[in-house]
Structure of Glutamyl-tRNA(Gln) amidotransferase subunit A:
Amino acid sequence: MTLYNETVHDLHEKLTKKEISSVELTEKVFDRIDKVEDSVKAYITLDKEGALKKAREVDQKIAAGEAIKPLTGIPGAIKDNISLKGMRLTCASKILENFQPVYDAHVIENLRKDDTVFIGKTNMDEFAMGSTTETSYFKATSNPWDLTRVPGGSSGGSAAAIAAGEAIWSLGSDTGGSIRQPASFNGCVGIKPTYGRVSRYGCIAFASSLDQIGPITKDVTDAAIVLNTICGVDAHDSTSANVPVPDFTKALKQDVKDMVIGLPKEFFGKGTDPKVAEQIKLTAKKYEELGAKVVEVSLPHTEYAVITYYIIAPAEASANLGRFDGVRYGFRDLSAKSAPEMMAATRTEGFGEEVRRRIMLGTYVLSSGYYDAYYNKAMQVRTLIRQDYQKAFETCDLLLTPTSPVVAYSLDAKMDPLTVYMLDVTTIPVNMAGLPGMSIPCGFVDGMPVGAQLIGKPLGEETLLRAAYTFEQATEFHKAVAPLGGKK
Ligand code: GLN
């Protein structure tokens, strides 16, 4: 049995029926890691011993007849910007290379309650800044669909691990697309929940008004299962929403009859690969066949989303990353003669090029004389973007777009930062408006997976899940398996 290729819900059934044990499953996943990790490079840290210890505990509970939760005993991978006590946390940065976190993130506390098994921490762009996982201090991750291509980012390790069978489920974080875009590049399902649905406590802050943690999984059912466990109000995060958490698996119905799905025309024009656009149009057609009504809508401020994000996110990042000063955490340059010199040297050496670029951008747009011209203006545009969506949702239940304008590109592409930033155009507005967004596999272009993005109303995750599930059950895309090869 190649258990590593199965879903959370299938494995849960096998565990409850005692057809397999958690130890057997965990060993299969680590065998798979031994086999493919050298070529995929999805992980920064692995904890086989800890995982097997937990699996043994779970097996004892099952043997004793205890009821188990859907994620109990099922090995998952955690993005390395989420705090898990007992495993180092690096944010893929030299500055935190040897940092041991002293508490669990809220999502980890929730997962521990369900006795899940943690495999390790996944590779990412440094401090989640990037779209390819290449800005990691440690290594670049490869895409299991074609090892010569990027896995996307910044949660590239979490998505590649799922596609390669190196984890059954995983967590990512999404500030401007970092769950959805890698999910789409790797043929996975990914959800960025509504801002506030999931506590950010213990997720190293990048841009606090945009960050959300969410699942990356093999199918829609698994995404609902992980979401069930990680959502919920938390006193440690004042922006976490004090709203009831439904059982998201109840939303998994095959029914989109009378659902109104909007296709925003701005997402299909210049900059979008026509072959990708074609796959999304076919997805819309499928939805029509399944009983939904598809209409064209307009989100007129879309063209300003990227430039305003690249003001707001660096501004927040420059403040959030101020704490990495060589005094309290991680790496410290020991050659300096004074405290200010030490801080400057530590930060210059400890942060990579992209992170330094963001900090400089952020401090610039927040400095007096420029604040009104850049930061304030960007905040005003952010309101306009949010209003575009409010208006679209007066007539639509959800919106359908490409998750990314392109499929995964070559690791050798060496694009300039601005070109890479522009490719975030499809995902960024969703964070700016605080809405839930989801990517589901919907086709292939040049042998690489294409993701369809579903965007919902605030707290509208159930509608997204229902629509995603209906499409998934009517198609075979989610069943395709990454070949782990490379183009010749
Ligand atoms: N690619 C975007 C950036 O570089 C988004 C990153 C993210 O969502 N963490 O900022």
About this structure: Residues 128-131, 154, 174-178, 206, 313, 424 surround glutamine (CB under 6 Å). DSSP finds 15 helices and eleven strands in the chain. The mean pLDDT is 97. The two ends are 31 Å apart (CA to CA).
